[in-house]
Amino acid sequence: MESVAPKVTVVVPTYNERDNLPKIVELLAASEIPNLHVLVVDDNSPDGTGEVADTLAQSGPIPVGVLHRTVKDGLGRAYVAGMTRALAEGADIVIQMDADLSHPTEAIPRMVQTLATTDAAVVLGSRYVAGGAVASDWPWHRKALSAWANFYVNAILRLRVKDATAGFKAWHADTLRAIDVDGVQSNGYAFQVEMNYRTVQRGMTIAEVPIRFEERTDGVSKMSLAVQIESALVPWKLRFSGDAAQPSRVRG
Fold this sequence. Notes:
Layout: E1 8-14, H1 20-30, E2 36-42, H2 49-59, E3 64-68, H3 75-88, E4 93-96, H4 108-117, E5 120-126, E6 133-134, H5 140-157, E7 169-172, H6 173-178, H7 188-201, E8 205-210, E9 212-213, H8 225-239, E10 249-251
Helix pairs in contact: 5-8, 7-8
């Protein structure tokens, strides 16, 4: 009897990404990953992204689901809603990726393979392990801010990962259940840190595979002052809110 490939659901939060979304779906379809699904989580985009997602759900090259949210309350809330839906719909592996084309879809097969062949609980698409890179057109101050953010987070939480703020990840469904993804409180980039911290606390393995992170080509960045402030405060909140994290096993 032929075994069924694990269900892989890519959760893509969107807000004003009508131009990028069809491109992402086409790229994912071209990756030829067996049993691949996309779940678009749209926060009532005024540019019609939700309608574009509905069209893709009807006639896209791979299965596309759409979760329409009426309140725009942050990236973290969108991911929690999407991941919770993906788990309820039977996903075995959940991929989180941005809608701005900064995350290379060609890395997903390696991320999925790493989950399948190692003891990794989550695999990060990492800019800062050997072979990884950031966009060449990033200005120096943005590169410095990203490097400082990773140093800052690791100094406080001792995650021992190269790319602690990475937003491109592949999760075992059981990992998301174990860390109680529905209970994650952070938003913005701090959401990524809290997810890693919850994984480390439970002694589970984080693996990293190299990616080249590209600058968005269409749309506008969602970074705000509130997101930056939360990102600075959340590591301290996590550090002093409970038991110290257990040593993690991290593999690059």
